[in-house]
Amino acid sequence: MTGHKPELLEALLITTNPYDYHMISQGEITVKSIDDVEEFIATDTAIDILGFTAEEKLGIYKLTGAVMHHGNMKFKQKQREEQAEPDGNEGNNRNNTTL
């Protein structure tokens, strides 16, 4: 979300605003002693050092993006059933788009 790799933001269908994602905006968003770009580069480099392929690396990022999007989903219970169904797609920035 740092915007350091704009192509990654596009691939994950995410924005740079952490408040767009409920799952990651429940605590402190900014910590003075942590440089988010530096941490992102360190994480990205660590994935390479561990020997993940480019496809696996993208998969890691896509899974993270999917969790962020999943946190924005809302469900409602079907009447007289134990199942739930999506409660609209208001929180979805790009309707009907899959990761």
Spatial order of strands in the largest sheet = 1-2
Tell me the series of helices and strands, N- to C-terminal: HHHEE
By CATH, the topology is Arc Repressor Mutant, subunit A
CATH class, please?
Answer: Mainly Alpha
Outline the fold blueprint.
Layout: H1 6-12, H2 36-49, H3 54-70, E1 75-77, E2 84-86
Antiparallel strand pairs: 1-2
What would you note in describing this structure?
The structure is a single chain. The chain has a two-stranded antiparallel ribbon with strand order 1-2. The two termini are 16 Å apart. By secondary structure, it is mainly alpha-helical. The longest helix has 17 residues, at 54-70. The protein has one domain: Orthogonal Bundle (Arc Repressor Mutant, subunit A). A hairpin with a 6-residue loop joins β1 (75-77) and β2 (84-86). The model is unreliable at 94-99 (pLDDT under 50). 38% of the residues lie in helices and 6% in strands. The chain has helices at residues 6-12, 36-49, 54-70, and strands at 75-77, 84-86.
List keywords for this structure.
6% strand, single chain, Arc Repressor Mutant, subunit A, extended, two-stranded antiparallel ribbon, 3 helices, 99 residues, 2 strands, mainly alpha
Summarize the model shown.
This protein is mainly alpha-helical and 99 residues long. The chain contains 3 helices and 2 strands.
